[in-house]
Every structure is written in C-alpha cells, then in structure tokens.
C-alpha cells in the first residue's frame, strides 16, 4: 500500500505521518517511510537526534545509482542519462519490494528503531532556495517518484510518504501514485483551500483523497470541517499531549498515545486497506505512462535528446507477478 500525507505547511503532515508509521509498526506491518516534505522533519518526528537526521543520505544525491539499478537490463532505456523521473519500468527493469535488501535501500535508506519495531526511512534531502526553481527540485522529488513507480507493494506492506502538495507533484503525476492520500487540514480557511485545490487536480485521475482534520477542538471546529469538506472528512485528531511531549524531545512510549488519537490512526489504516482493495495495477501502469508521455513532450525529450516515448513497454504491467527476485 502506498500512502501520502499532504497539506499546508504546519498543518501536521509530518506529525501525523510519524504517528501513523508508529501505529503501523506497532501492528507489525513492514514500513518504508519517505520524507519528501520541503521541511525535512520526518526523521526527527520518528525520534532521530539532530545529528542522526542530518546524517540521513539524500535520495536526490543518489539519483545515478537509483537509475542504474532500476534500469536493470531494460533494452528500452539506453542509459541512466536517458532516464527521467517518469520513465516507467518495463521488461528487464528491476523492481523494488518493501521488505527486501537492495542497493537502493543500502545507499539511501536508514533503519530507524521505534518502540515497537523498526522502519526503513528514506529522505529526499533538504531543499534549498534554488531547488524550488525547477531542475534540482525535480531531481530530489523525482527520485521518490522513480522509486514509487518501480515499487511493488503487497496488501500488508506500507510505503508512507510525507509530501509537499506542490505543483511539482501535479505536473509529474506523483500525486496519482498512492492508494490513498491523506490531506491534513486544520479547521481554517487556508487548510481547507489546499484541500479544494488538491481535489481539483485529483478529480480526473481517480485519486482517493481523504481529509484528516488536525488540531480540532470542539464542535465548532468539527462543524466547520464537515461543512467545508463533506464526506471527504475521514477523521479528526485533537491537540495531543503526547505530541507536545515528543516536541520537547521526550516522547513517552507510543502505547501511551491518547486513546482517541490511537483510534483515529486505526481509522487511517482501515481506510488505506480499503483503498488498496481497489488497486488496479493496469490503471496504475497506464497513469505512469500517461504522465511520462506528458513530461517527455513538455521537457524530457528536449532535455535528454531522446524520444522518450520509446521507453514505454506496451506489454508491461507493474504487479506482484512482474516482480521476480533480482540477483544482487
Ligand atoms: N495533533 C497535534 N497535537 C499537538 N501538536 C501538533 C499536532 N499536530 C501537529 N502539531 C504541532 O504542529 C506543528 C506543525 O506540525 P508538522 O507536523 O511539523 O506540520 P507540517 O509537516 O504539515 O508542516 C509541530 O510543532 C507539531 O508538533
Ligand atoms: Mg513537515
């Protein structure tokens, strides 16, 4: 299952991603966590010290390795240089699994120990001012997109991405890579406006979008969200003292998280499981190809000097059946 947390800065994406990851781990589910937020805080929210978080490898810095590995022996991809962030897998490509060792995880993932188990954490690396222009930002988030497009996930395995709801994820198609997208919204007009914008983009692509109300206090907040968001409102969380303690660097054991917040996390897991039941690998692959062709035409062909449409393997459908174990 692939799950994204999106929303306005400060709404609680990172906090809820980290709580959800802890919850999944407590339920013994294997998790790959990905920090693709502009402010890279997921490591800290999972309990890493500042030094540990700073030492996380940056996905963007390992793009050549990632491309070379994923390309495998795919004859349609002539070189790593001809691979853009939307290049889809095909026959000969190497695929990633949640629960395996591979060179991409070796280079880019670190194991984070939690109270109830451990997760793999990958991070895009910090964004700088210049990243928010065009090219570099693409390469950072592009590494995540390549991994998602080559990742075969089963029903009891989780990939959780803490993500910025920016225009880049819309242009590239990354926003369509998830079984469910949790839009974290505070009960404010700004929080809700991000939801409206996301909904607009998502509409034509069958994206399952659920709003998670955060920092909700009392009936008035709840009424506001219900009114603005309607049936898309999945669940709400209140102010959490557990989170407050974590922010002070003193997280209590996870089992001490408030019971109502724990229930809310289970609601998220149930929603994710329901969405995965609708996973249509054929459509998933088709959407990848759709965005690849779009990116090829708008900038990729010009940038690489290659006709990137020829990278599409018309017979290939990403699925568990397509993921044969790779030697080394
Ligand atoms: N449910 C909550 N209870 C208490 N504090 C919260 C809660 N959700 C978020 N916060 C606090 O709000 C701030 C912003 O949250 P964060 O997860 O970093 O937002 P984002 O990733 O969306 O920018 C943090 O200081 C976080 O601790
Ligand atoms: Mg954040």
Secondary-structure element sequence?
Answer: EHEHHHEHEEHEEHEHEHEHHH
Beta-strand content bin: 15-25%
Beta strands, count: 10
Specify the helix fraction band.
40-55%
N-to-C CA distance: 25 Å
Overall pLDDT confidence: 92
Query: Which structural class fits the helix and strand makeup?
Result: alpha/beta
Radius of gyration: 19 Å
What oligomeric arrangement do these chains adopt?
A: single chain
Tally of individual helices: 12
Largest sheet: 8 strands, mixed
The residue ranges in which pLDDT falls below 50 over 5 or more consecutive positions are: none
Bound molecules: adenosine-5'-diphosphate, magnesium ion
- The side-by-side strand order for the widest beta sheet comes to 4-5-2-7-1-8-9-10
User: What general outline do the C-alpha atoms trace?
Assistant: globular
What does this protein look like?
With 328 residues, the protein is α/β, with parallel strands linked by helices. The chain has helices at 13-26, 42-45, 50-54, 63-71, 103-108, 135-149, 167-172, 189-202, 218-229, 241-247, 259-277, 281-304; strands at 2-7, 31-36, 96-97, 109-114, 117-123, 151-152, 158-163, 180-185, 209-213, 233-236. Bound molecules: adenosine-5'-diphosphate and magnesium ion (MG). Residues 13-14, 37, 39, 41 line the site of magnesium ion (MG).
């Amino acid at each position: 299952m692939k799950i994204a947390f999106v929303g306005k800065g400060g709404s609680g994406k990172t906090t809820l991603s980290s709580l959800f990851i802890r919850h999944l781990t407590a339920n013994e589910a294997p998790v790959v966590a990905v920090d693709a937020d502009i402010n890279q805080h997921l490591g800290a929210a999972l309990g890493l010290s500042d030094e540990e978080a700073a030492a996380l490898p940056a996905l963007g810095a390992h793009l050549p390795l990632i491309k070379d590995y994923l390309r495998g022996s795919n004859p349609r991809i002539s070189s790593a240089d001809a691979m853009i962030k939307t290049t889809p897998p095909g026959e000969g490509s190497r695929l990633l699994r949640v629960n395996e060792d591979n060179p991409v995880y070796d280079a880019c993932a670190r194991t984070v120990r939690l109270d109830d188990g451990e997760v793999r954490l990958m991070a895009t690396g910090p964004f700088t001012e210049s990243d928010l222009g065009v090219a570099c930002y693409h390469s950072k988030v592009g590494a995540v997109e390549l991994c998602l497009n080559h990742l075969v996930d089963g029903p009891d395995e989780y990939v959780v991405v803490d993500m910025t709801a920016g225009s880049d994820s819309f242009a590239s198609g990354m926003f369509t890579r998830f079984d469910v997208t949790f839009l974290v919204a505070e009960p404010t007009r700004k929080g809700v406006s991000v939801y409206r914008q996301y909904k607009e983009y998502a509409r034509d692509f069958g994206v399952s979008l659920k709003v998670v109300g955060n920092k909700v206090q009392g009936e008035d907040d709840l009424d506001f969200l219900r009114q603005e968001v309607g049936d898309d409102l999945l669940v709400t969380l209140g102010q959490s003292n557990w989170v407050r303690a974590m922010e002070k660097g003193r997280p209590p054991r996870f089992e001490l998280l408030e019971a109502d917040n724990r229930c809310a996390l289970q609601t998220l897991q149930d929603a994710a499981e329901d969405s995965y039941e609708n996973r249509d690998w054929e459509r998933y692959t088709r959407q990848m190809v759709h965005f690849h062709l779009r990116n090829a035409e708008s900038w990729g062909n010009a940038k690489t000097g290659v006709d990137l449409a020829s990278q599409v393997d018309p017979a290939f459908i990403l699925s568990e059946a397509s993921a044969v174990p790779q030697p080394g």
